[in-house]
């Protein structure tokens, strides 16, 4: 074995050991909560956004594009090298494979250190003392009834006419500022230095079915501003929840909901209530399709028009690659303490039931 190969093998072993060390600490949610989420992560994210936040564009988006190009170039050079090598083809191939694995593991460790360990925090339901048990049909029906009324009221506050679809004229940059107010007013989720930007890859995100994403390497939140506007305030608040150190998707949805309401802005309120309604009736529909239809039909006509436009928008971009992307994302979430994968987003409804249960609006499940 040559010296270079041996050096790479040693480095690989060290990296695997550090990953095991990270996973070992991840078994102690209270340690992750106190030492990482409320200590190390806060410092890292302040540093990240102090560097990237002032830029008018998403630096993370640019860096991702450069990295993808470099990866493609590396793969091309690797294959070309194997084909061209007359002697030592095996050692060249192994060397390249080791190099690729080391780069991947380094990126994984940076990801875990910069944000990923937040997946292993104490559950938000424990921190807020909310019941987060899986909601039964009766509870979901009660929640759907509450949200139907809240959506219709929020819609009427905007339009004064149940038949009219609301058109919001505010630019997305102003929406980012309003969302920030929601976090300023929050006791539990306030955080320092925010950075929310419109993504450079909106079209690509449309085809991937993505409304927004958090870049753990730059600390920036990217928002796709193409989907119907009523969905933006909720998406923005969701992505900001990720900045605050909430990794789990159902928790980011819940924090997005609460902080959107915190803004006391009528459009944000409508957005949050409608998204919560859509998640709730979608879960309810898995148990009872007639109940789902009943609540949908109880909405103001203007609200139904918004839902129709939303579905049509995403349907327009459905494609053959999307399921593969979803499969990969599902796997990613499952490997990061989100056992339900993509369905984690829907677990949001259990937190909503717990929230309205605490407010005395939903009855506690009988044991
Ligand atoms: Zn998210």
TrEMBL record:
Tell me where the transmembrane regions lie: 9-26, 62-79, 100-120
* Xref: InterPro entries: DUF3810
Keywords from the named record: Membrane, Transmembrane, Transmembrane helix
Q: What protein name does the entry list?
A: DUF3810 domain-containing protein
